[in-house]
Write a structure and sequence with these properties.
By secondary structure, this protein is of the alpha+beta class. The chain is built from 10 helices and 10 strands. The protein is 41% helix and 18% strand.
């Protein structure tokens, strides 16, 4: 029986200009100035530019100069935090709070959406299902453009349409492979319920006759299993079509195990503990949520269980 749904929201701040800005790049280079005052001034100027400077800042993270790398990394992190606050404000306005919000920072996404920030928002399906807010599906990707008006993508098909229009052009094998890696990272979220760990092996992204194919693997932790096979076709640098085959199977999911850690029946206690140990680190958000409303005695039991999970390397 289906116990609930999971909601994912990825917020993308769309690029206003995909071309490198020479003026911004010159400011980035000043981050390595011999003058501390000049370095601070350059950092302040870049900070004030906000999202406009994001592509150059991301490029600066891989600069040959260590000082530029460090300062660009900090500025990117600041933008991510600022973007997250903007997302939180949007969710409050939509009365869509109560989820778990986190940034997605994989390099491939920055390459295909250089002026974009991506976040995931999870409304847990376990132990109690949460109803999707109006205007949202079970899993969603939200796209926020320069005007600040979010566009909701509620399916892998809508993600395909978006990628074809807004991902950076893929004109050669290297950029098509990067495009594919970014796509794999996003499309996996439409199978996510909060208790999967997915892996993408770059060496499994292969060139085909008219594009690239790739695989998202499911980590077998907690009894999970399966994979997502994706094939992307390109035409003149743009995504033409996507074929997906999803075979993802859920393992153990938390229902009420944490509340049974102090059950008077030792068999019930043991079964509850074993289920959570099998989940391992995947159970951490659930345990944190239960601990926040538990009695002091149950809090200590949850702490002991988490320490054991960590000690066992689960």
């Amino acid at each position: 029986m289906r116990r609930g749904v999971f909601f994912l929201v990825a917020i993308l701040l769309l690029p206003q200009d995909i071309h490198a800005d020479d003026h911004i790049q010159k400011i980035v280079e000043r981050l390595a100035s011999r003058s501390f005052a000049e370095r601070e001034k350059a950092a302040n100027e870049l900070s004030q530019m906000g999202m406009k400077a994001l592509p150059e800042l991301r490029a600066g993270v891989n600069h040959s100069n260590a000082e530029i790398q460090k300062r660009c990394r900090k500025l990117v992190e600041d933008l991510q935090a600022s973007g997250q606050r903007r997302v939180e404000e949007f969710l409050r306005a939509k009365n869509a709070g109560g989820g778990r919000l986190a940034p997605v920072t994989e390099t491939a996404l920055g390459d295909v959406l250089p002026s974009s920030l991506v976040y995931t928002l999870v409304y847990p399906a376990f132990p109690v299902a949460r109803i999707a807010p109006p205007g949202f599906g079970s899993q969603n990707i939200l796209v926020v453009g320069a005007d600040g008006a979010p566009t909701v993508l509620k399916s892998a098909r809508e993600l395909e349409d978006f990628a074809g229009k807004f991902f950076r052009r893929a004109d050669n094998d290297a950029t098509m492979k990067t495009f594919t890696l970014a796509y794999l990272r996003l499309t996996q979220e439409f199978s996510q319920d909060g208790f999967f760990k997915f892996t993408i092996a770059a060496n499994e992204v292969k060139k085909t006759n008219d594009g690239f194919s790739g695989r998202v693997g499911v980590d077998p932790a907690g009894g999970n299993k399966g994979e997502i096979l994706v094939s992307l076709r390109f035409d003149n640098g743009r995504l033409k079509s996507v074929t997906e085959k999803r075979s993802v199977v859920a393992g153990i999911r938390p229902i009420c195990q944490a509340t049974k850690l102090l059950d008077p029946d030792p068999i019930v206690r043991t079964m509850a503990e074993q289920s959570l140990r099998v989940l391992g680190s995947l159970a951490k958000p659930y345990l944190d949520e239960q601990r926040a409303k538990a009695s002091p005695e149950l809090q200590r039991a949850i702490d002991r269980l988490w320490e054991r999970i960590q000690a066992e390397g689960r």
